């Protein structure tokens, strides 16, 4: 069997890891494939920067076109990041009949439907395991390992930067700013951390996972997104007193109607498997109707975990090429996915439990006023903590509610914020706790 040639576009952190794996372990890869896999060309705009990997002379080029126009290159790997240029490169490779591997979650969240349709038209494949959770094989699990299941829900810690910050805030009572600075010092957070801390990166990934799990087109715009930058340590402390840990959770759920797809700070019980996912680690908790709940856990970013997933995709495509097989498995796991638009429930329609903190004057009757308004909006209280510590001259009242509709909670909080005895705004976070659900039945 003749070698299969690979072209790599992007020689940054992930690109360096991919190039290293392809050039430093050729015997291992050839033994597993049964034929050689050759990195023929690497394109990058910066050919002078010192890297930890030395490539043979002639392997590097500053022209992406050298890879796109080479008829001997069958697989193009895109690891440049961003969306506009990456989209053009991926579509150009597909138009030339080349298979594509990408680690670019933003690209797929925004343009995945277009890219997958182009791949179908040109009878080529697009592989993207590294786009979600780095080295954790969640794409493989959803497309193949759990294919016989109806996926009921997914709960994910999909961003290591946010999880590291929340771990520091929980364990050391650090402020958000302090924890962010530490994350940046350790290399877990970018100089501009917006995509990570505001939940956008996790939402990109959740949009892809939701499409895979439920056989529908990718719909990033419908994912509700809230970040962690406004979190205060006091809420993590109260969460702990109620028996919860606060995580930036990506939630996707199928209740038989519209899907749920949302990213926001969430309280989960301390005995939940996701509660102990600390530091910069990622995890996805998936429940299938046949298999039950499973947890996939590991490093969600970094040079080698991400490179591991990229090279896994390269090997998979190379095997298909060697056997003359194309498009054995549709990118979203179903032939009909790109023709299916499953609606995503507006956040106002979501029903869940809530953590609410009010700053109220320490006067008789205040608690009854608040609970009265909640009751008028069909919100019942499961637990309350009221303490004498002062927060901006007021006493904190913290409540856990039974299940309630988001729209009702928002209307109630707007009304409560208008009371003269309350210092607005009320703080609200959602809770994912099956124990609370069971207590209501």
Write up this protein.
By secondary structure, this protein is an alpha/beta fold. It folds into three domains: 4-137 and 303-339, NAD(P)-binding Rossmann-like Domain (Rossmann fold, 3-Layer(aba) Sandwich); 140-299, Dihydrodipicolinate Reductase, domain 2 (2-Layer Sandwich); 347-440, Alpha-Beta Plaits (2-Layer Sandwich), CATH 3.30.70. It contains 15 helices and 17 strands. It has helices at 13-24, 26-33, 65-68, 84-95, 105-121, 138-145, 160-172, 176-185, 194-197, 200-214, 233-241, 303-322, 366-376, 406-417, 434-440; strands at residues 4-9, 37-43, 60-61, 73-78, 99-102, 126-127, 151-157, 224-225, 244-254, 259-269, 281-288, 292-299, 351-360, 381-386, 395-401, 404-405, 422-431. The strands form two sheets. Strands 7, 8, 9, 10, 11, 12, 13, 14, 15, 16 and 17 form an eleven-stranded mixed beta sheet that branches. Strands 3-2-1-4-5-6 form a six-stranded parallel beta sheet, sandwiched between helices. Helix 4 (84-95) links the parallel strand 4 and strand 5. Helix 5 (105-121) packs parallel to helix 10 (200-214), helix 7 (160-172) packs across helix 8 and helix 13 packs antiparallel against helix 14. The longest helix is centred in the C-terminal third of the chain and has 20 residues, at 303-322. The model has no long low-confidence stretch (mean pLDDT 94).
């Amino acid at each position: 069997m003749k070698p299969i040639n690979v072209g790599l576009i992007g020689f940054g952190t992930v690109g360096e890891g991919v190039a290293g794996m392809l050039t430093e372990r050729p015997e291992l890869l050839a033994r597993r494939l049964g034929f050689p896999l050759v990195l023929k060309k690497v394109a990058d705009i910066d050919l002078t920067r010192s890297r930890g990997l030395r490539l043979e002379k002639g392997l590097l080029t500053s022209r992406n076109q050298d890879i796109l126009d080479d008829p001997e290159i069958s697989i193009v790997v895109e690891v440049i990041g961003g969306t506009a240029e990456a989209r053009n490169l991926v579509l150009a490779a597909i138009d030339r009949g080349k298979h594509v591997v990408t680690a670019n979650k933003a690209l797929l969240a925004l343009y995945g439907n277009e890219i997958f349709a182009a791949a179908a038209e040109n009878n080529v494949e697009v592989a993207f395991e590294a786009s979600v959770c780095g080295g954790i094989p969640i794409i493989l699990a959803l497309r193949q390992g759990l294919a016989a299941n109806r996926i009921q829900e997914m709960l994910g810690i999909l961003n290591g930067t946010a999880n590291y910050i929340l771990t520091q805030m929980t364990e050391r009572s650090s402020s958000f700013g302090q924890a962010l600075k530490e994350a940046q010092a350790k290399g877990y957070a970018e100089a501009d951390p917006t995509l990570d801390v505001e939940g956008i990166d996790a939402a990109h990934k959740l949009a892809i996972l939701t499409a895979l799990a439920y056989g529908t087109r990718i719909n990033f715009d419908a994912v509700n997104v809230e970040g962690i930058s406004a979190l205060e340590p006091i809420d993590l402390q109260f969460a702990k007193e109620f028996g919860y840990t606060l995580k930036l959770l990506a939630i996707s759920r199928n209740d038989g109607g519209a899907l749920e797809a949302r990213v926001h700070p969430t309280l989960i019980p301390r005995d939940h498997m996701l509660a102990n996912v600390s530091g910069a680690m990622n995890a996805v908790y998936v429940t299938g109707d046949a298999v039950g709940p499973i947890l996939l856990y590991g490093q969600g970013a970094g040079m080698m975990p991400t490179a591991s997933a990229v090279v896994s995709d390269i090997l998979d495509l190379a095997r298909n090429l060697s056997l003359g097989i194309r498009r054995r498995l549709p990118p979203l796991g179903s032939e009909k996915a790109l023709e299916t638009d499953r609606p995503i429930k507006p956040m106002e329609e979501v029903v869940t439990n809530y953590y609410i903190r009010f700053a109220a004057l320490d006067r008789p009757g205040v608690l009854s006023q608040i609970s009265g308004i909640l009751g008028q909006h069909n919100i019942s209280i499961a637990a309350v903590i009221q303490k004498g510590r002062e927060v901006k001259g007021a006493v904190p009242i913290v409540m856990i509610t039974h299940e309630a509709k988001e729209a009702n909670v928002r209307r109630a909080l707007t009304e409560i914020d208008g009371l003269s005895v309350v210092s607005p705004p009320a703080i609200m976070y959602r809770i994912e706790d099956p124990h609370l659900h069971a207590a209501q039945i």
